[in-house]
Amino acid sequence: MAIATSFAKPKNTVTRQVHGTQGKVVPGIEALVGRLIQAASHRYLKFDNTEDATKLPVPEPTGSYLLYLHIPFCVTLCPFCSFHRVEFKAARAMTYFDALQREIRLATSIGYKFGEVYIGGGTPTVMPAELVRTLDLVSDLHDVTRISAETNPDDLDGNVVCQLREAGINRLSVGVQSFDDELLNEMKRYDKYGSGAIIRQRLTRVRDSFDTLNVDMIFNFPHQTDASLQRDLAILTGEIAADQVSFYPLMATRTTRKAMQQSLGNVDFSRESSMYRQIADHMLASGYTRSSAWCFSRGTNMIDEYITKQDEYLGLGSGAFSFLGGRIMASTFSINHYIKLIEQGVTGIVRQRMLSQTDQMRYYLLMRLFSGCLDLDAADSHFGGQFRKGLRSEFAALRLYGAIQKKASSIRLTDRGYYLWVVMMREFFSGVNHLREQMRHNIARESEVIRTAGS
Ligand code: SF4
């Protein structure tokens, strides 16, 4: 589901044959770049236990931030999912939504202003009335222009859709993954979210209900054939005519690999570039343009994934991440601990790490070029004139590979660069999943703190 469906890559990276700048076959250059990104992101996406903090930094007085809200409940726990999600229990979720609303009020009282909201999970629409109540609160407190939410196909019923639209959601992102019944069965989604035919009907019914209807898909499932991928592509651009389609490469994390292997089979990364090429060729030939390396949009007013445009965002709720002032921050993954912290009048944020200037610049480069284009003057002004100088060797390597082209004061990804970026983002999210594993590891310690405090 949107950016929130990311799976990290296993250690057994395959060696691949790919084409270099002169059209020659270069052994595994993308795999090598992927490994470098993986190593770098594992290095800087790491919390040491010394920076525990529940205090929010003071916001810029003139700044308008993106607000990310995490709803960690799901009715079905998919075996491949590495996200922070727990089984849905109505009473617990009610208490959680109350706590989340208190946390929103707390951030507002500190001075945060929000112009855009992104709600991810888990399944944000698991309790539509509570989600609406939360969004009403945000809209009462802030001048919000865009709200993007993730959902699953079973929540696309008329009543829920109406409530979501009235709550101001203008981009709805539906986690579909595939329309192939065999693959849906392997993913253990068929019984809960319906067959490919049912999902198609639901999507067609709601396609005009939001400014942007995004469909999240995954490619490179072990048993996915080219014919199955082509059928999915035809459905998306023909029958459904989705406003936007995001195609994520299948990934595997340490924690999900075993369950994935049992249900889906072994991931073969050597097929990834050819499948990506089929997707890009089909989407571009069908009149879509690239919003990011793996997101394709129809029309000009689509609302894109938030990460490519927003420099700073505040994440609230258990399992949320924030990026503020060069600092990565994470909220506790323990729902009980989260509720306790909120009751104490502090935020759920328990870990943070300041990135070095170079790592901040690399992060900026990765996120901005993910959209396909980076304004070098804006980047230099953001980093006090150091951006071009500080990343000289990164730019040289990207040019040598043929991944970027310079046009006036901006750089753009080439066709070859887009696939390289898919690999790099896959590996970056591997680092994010590593962070999640660390945060899960802390749950036992945090529960101990609650027990000790209560005794
Ligand atoms: S519904 Fe989405 S968030 Fe929930 S377990 Fe499945 S993939 Fe993960």
Write the layout of secondary structure elements.
Blueprint: E1 17-19, E2 25-27, H1 29-44, E3 65-71, E4 73-74, E5 86-87, H2 90-110, E6 114-121, H3 128-141, E7 146-151, H4 158-166, E8 171-177, H5 181-186, H6 190-193, H7 196-206, E9 212-219, H8 226-239, E10 244-249, H9 257-263, H10 272-285, E11 289-292, E12 295-297, E13 313-316, E14 321-324, E15 327-331, H11 335-343, E16 349-354, H12 357-370, E17 373-375, H13 376-382, H14 387-390, H15 392-401, E18 404-407, E19 410-413, H16 415-441, H17 443-454
Parallel strand pairs: 3-6, 3-13, 4-5, 6-7, 7-8, 8-9, 9-10
Antiparallel strand pairs: 1-2, 10-12, 11-12, 14-15, 15-16, 17-19, 18-19
Helix pairs in contact: 1-16, 2-3, 2-11, 3-4, 8-10
The structure holds iron/sulfur cluster.
Describe it for me?
The protein is of the alpha/beta class. It has one domain: tm_1862 like domain (pyruvate-formate lyase- activating enzyme), CATH 3.80.30.20. The chain has helices at 29-44, 90-110, 128-141, 158-166, 181-186, 190-193, 196-206, 226-239, 257-263, 272-285, 335-343, 357-370, 376-382, 387-390, 392-401, 415-441, 443-454, and strands at residues 17-19, 25-27, 65-71, 73-74, 86-87, 114-121, 146-151, 171-177, 212-219, 244-249, 289-292, 295-297, 313-316, 321-324, 327-331, 349-354, 373-375, 404-407, 410-413. The strands form 5 sheets. A 9-stranded mixed beta sheet has the order 11-12-10-9-8-7-6-3-13. Helix 4 (158-166) links the parallel strand 7 (146-151) and strand 8 (171-177). The chain starts with 16 loop residues before the first strand and ends with a helix. The model is unreliable at 1-27 (pLDDT under 50). The structure holds iron/sulfur cluster. Iron/sulfur cluster (SF4) is lined by residues 1, 5, 74, 77-78, 81, 83, 85, 121-123, 152, 175. Residues 1, 5, 74, 77-78, 81, 83, 85, 121-123, 152, 175 line the site of iron/sulfur cluster.
